[in-house]
């Protein structure tokens, strides 16, 4: 099972590292390896959240996610995205930007640094909305019950997540963007942060709204198809497939790609702290992205999210932490190691709590008094 799921990731790793060593030498080999590990550590929470969405898709769309999706993730975010940033910031064409990356890597890094405020505001607002919508929703299982119960009650207020996100964006623009870091020192980036943050918020609402709409339609369609299948069994007639499920899966696929893009911002910018070589960067982050994809499918097929009910909670808290960190980095530099460490700690804590819950369920099985409720209480952090 492990080899089948991670086989392509292992193969890409071997080929990628071998190519780096052959083309650029052992220094490139080491840097590509470091970047791969960095991407995996920063994006583990991405895999957990992706798994929660991917498990709603059928096997066909899971394959699409691993093929076309990985092409978008690697070439779109890890290679094209930095080039687009430079092209927009420097007001040059994409081809000229690639030449700049190859011939003048220091200048290329300066341009990306200047664009960091916009990147952080966009990605931070998108991730913040994911976190807020999660904690304000009433859920069957509660990890940090003392916090999640009152927040779930507050979540009944319409548009609360959007209001809080806009307040955070405004405070960020006032507090951090006024003296944001650039390659030449400090500059007022308030307008850039506001515009980019609103763009991130709009992106979340549009993509999330479309995926949610088609997901609801999919559930309605599945219920209708089930009724038709039951009727067909009684009458001995086949039932034709309906294309709505494909539309729903397509928009969920788009949502996954935008989500992956938001998670990639931190890794792409952080990679510049290790190397200015755009092709080393694309290769290392691309290898890491392959493992994130494989890990996502592994979590889905193993049913890990169903067995460890608090794992998704830990991932969303990690998303919230990453959103805050991205906004803070508009003015203050924060090591990517700290970002990765926070995410790993939160996910590990939720995994440990899930184990405690499962053990409590096993211990109380068959006993009167509601074993599920006992397990929920005893497993809280």
UniProtKB/TrEMBL annotation:
The chain crosses the membrane at residues 30-53, 65-90, 115-136, 157-178, 190-214, 239-256, 268-292, 313-331, 337-355. The keyword Transmembrane helix applies. Residues 362-381 are annotated as: Disordered. Keywords: Membrane, Transmembrane, Transmembrane helix. InterPro entries: DUF475. PANTHER family: MEMBRANE BOUND PREDICTED REDOX MODULATOR, SLL1022 PROTEIN. This is Integral membrane protein. It comes from Streptomyces pristinaespiralis (strain ATCC 25486 / DSM 40338 / CBS 914.69 / JCM 4507 / KCC S-0507 / NBRC 13074 / NRRL 2958 / 5647). The lineage of its organism: Bacteria, Bacillati, Actinomycetota, Actinomycetes, Kitasatosporales.
